[in-house]
């Protein structure tokens, strides 16, 4: 019964955040430019995004979708986005152009679009964890692509999580207990056949993340925060990552390579 409830909750939240379901809240917002009476979960996630956007000086920006779509469409056709196309897409990117309250979410100009792919997996892990905790469960690991541990391993200690850095396994497993873990890799998903143009884009320059890191892993009390931070950190040098973490004192940089 509990497993069925958790699966149903994941499906429900996909209908909020998914870019692949035409009737999801995010898809309807992107198609129409506005969304009436948004769900609590969408507003809650956007509030988290706003906090991370501010702390990262705008490098975490879910309005990046028009730029992401430009890269995807050009590379699918075997082309490299030209400067004019990138400039046009970048003109549609900007967190300040997203307006939201309990009654409505809207964009400041036509053509803007939202993606929560850099935070939604973690956010959904948190919601499922809350559901399981309400059922009285402990010693559970929720894995939606990002991880949230309730308690530790049933046999004792934390949940052992081994990080995969570019196909190489780290020798020491992380022991996850009552915390969340999220990882991002600039080249984890790529647009081009050669595997050089990564999917994490800089909302200021319009360029893919520089190949300075292979894997960024963050732990935090909640997976949504860890997910958003790990995404943004792919675009940042170590000094800026350390500065940003001062805004979220319960978050930790677990791996940077």
Class from helix and strand fractions: alpha+beta
The biggest beta sheet is recorded as: 5 strands, antiparallel
Query: Any idea what the radius of gyration is?
Result: 18 Å
Helix content: 25-40%
How many angstroms separate the termini?
41 Å
Overall mean pLDDT stands at: 96
- Beta-strand content estimate: 15-25%
What's the β-strand tally?
12
Name the shape in a single word: globular
Unreliable parts: none
Query: In which order are the strands of the major sheet placed?
Result: 4-5-10-11-12
Total number of helices: 8
**Order of helices and strands, N to C?**
HHEHHHEEHEEEEEEEEHHE
Explain this structure.
This protein is α+β, with helices and mostly antiparallel strands and 257 residues long. The protein contains 8 helices and 12 strands. The strands form 4 sheets. A 5-stranded antiparallel sheet has the order 4-5-10-11-12, covered by helices on one side. Strands 1-3-2 form a 3-stranded antiparallel sheet. It has a two-stranded antiparallel ribbon with strand order 6-9. α4 (65-76) packs antiparallel against α5 (83-90). It is globular. The model has no long low-confidence stretch (mean pLDDT 96).
């Amino acid at each position: 019964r509990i497993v069925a409830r958790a699966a149903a909750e994941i499906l429900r939240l996909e209908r909020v955040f998914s870019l692949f379901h035409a009737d999801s809240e995010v898809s309807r917002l992107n198609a129409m430019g506005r969304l009436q009476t948004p769900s609590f979960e969408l507003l809650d996630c956007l509030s988290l995004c706003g906090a991370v956007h501010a702390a990262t000086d705008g490098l975490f920006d879910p309005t990046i979708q028009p730029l992401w779509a430009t890269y995807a469409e050009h590379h699918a056709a075997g082309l490299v986005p030209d400067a004019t196309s990138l400039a046009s897409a970048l003109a549609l990117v900007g967190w300040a152009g997203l307006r939201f309250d309990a009654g409505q979410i809207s964009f400041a100009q036509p053509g803007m679009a939202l993606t929560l792919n850099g935070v939604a997996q973690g956010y959904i892990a948190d919601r499922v964890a809350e559901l399981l905790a309400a059922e009285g469960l402990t010693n559970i690991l929720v894995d939606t692509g990002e991880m949230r541990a309730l308690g530790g391993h049933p046999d004792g200690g934390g949940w052992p999580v081994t990080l995969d850095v570019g196909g190489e396994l780290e020798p020491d497993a992380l022991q996850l207990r009552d915390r969340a873990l999220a990882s991002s890799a600039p080249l984890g998903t790529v647009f081009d056949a050669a595997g050089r143009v990564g999917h994490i884009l800089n909302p200021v320059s319009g360029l893919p993340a520089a190949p300075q890191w292979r894997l960024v892993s963050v732990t935090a009390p909640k997976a949504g925060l860890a997910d958003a931070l790990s995404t943004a950190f792919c675009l940042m040098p170590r000094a800026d990552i350390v500065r940003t973490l001062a805004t979220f004192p319960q978050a930790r940089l677990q791996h940077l390579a």
